[in-house]
Amino acid sequence: MKKLILFFTISLCFSFPQNGYSNISSDPVEANFTFENACLFQTVMFTDLSVGNITSWSWDFDNGMAVSDEQDPEFNFSGFGDFVVQLIVSNDCESDTMIQEVTIYNGAPFFQDTTVCNNEPVEINGEVYAESVLTTEIFNFIDTLISSQGCDSITVFRLTVNPCGCELRFPNAFTPDGDGLNDTFQPVVICDQQIADYRMVIYDRWGETVYDTFEYTKPWDGTINGFPMPTDVFVYSVQYEIVDGNNRQFFNEIKDFTLIR
Questions:
Q1: Would you say 59 and 67 are in contact if contact means Cβ atoms under 8 Å apart?
Q2: What CATH class does 33-105 carry?
């Protein structure tokens, strides 16, 4: 008859006080750990300071958001504020738990929005800006500060510029060469109001009229009676009124520009 021999390994956790014995370990474990609070997006490094004959570490970051069984783990929290971190250390006989709060400081960008009209001055970071646009545009200005916790605090100033009001911009040169770019001389109109009593007269260097129009939508193509004018400097005189309800504002401008061929 064959005999079956079984071997068992039994771990006993005894201490021996003066009177009798106890099942309390003679080398109790005590959980402890240290860390440093951090800024948003920075990694927090945890250092185990537990004592005793420890065989396992169980970390819980923010009530189960993540776990780890490393002795000295690292973790990157997904937001800012206070987060609960729990460490359980144990061996074959007993365990101990420590809970601490980790503070993550806010370093997320802060957006400050401002909306203005064309060429309306606005002060940002001590500088005065006055942007001019043809259509609504957004300009971003970034300012980085260091907080009292040592975190970078980023403020993004979002400046929205609308082409409100009324403005006529005349170029200082044009190239009537048929390439589809700057082929005619006319104002760029940025206006949400009424333009009235418009007239533009263009003169050559001898004071002769080469073009005359009462409509700002009709440009000069650089010709006289169908004949192309050569490269030269010309002068334009323009008058118009901007009508906003009962308010009327008169403009009169005389400047030169260059025809380039």
A1: yes
A2: mainly beta
For the chain, domain boundaries? 33-105, 110-162, 166-259
Amino acid identity of residue 19, one-letter, is N
Cα–Cα distance between 33 and 236 in angstroms, integer? 80
Q: Burial-class residue 87 by CB neighbours within 10 Å (0-12, 13-18, 19+).
A: buried
pTM of the model: 0.44
Looking at residue 36, what DSSP letter applies?
Answer: -
Buried b (16+ CB within 10 A) or exposed e, 152-177: ebeeebebebbbbebbbeeeeebbbe
Q: What angle do CA 98, 66, 39 make, to 5 degrees?
A: 80
CA 87 to chain centre: 37
CATH number of 166-259: 2.60.40
67-107 residue pLDDT tens: 999 999 999 998 889 999 999 999 988 999 999 999 998 76
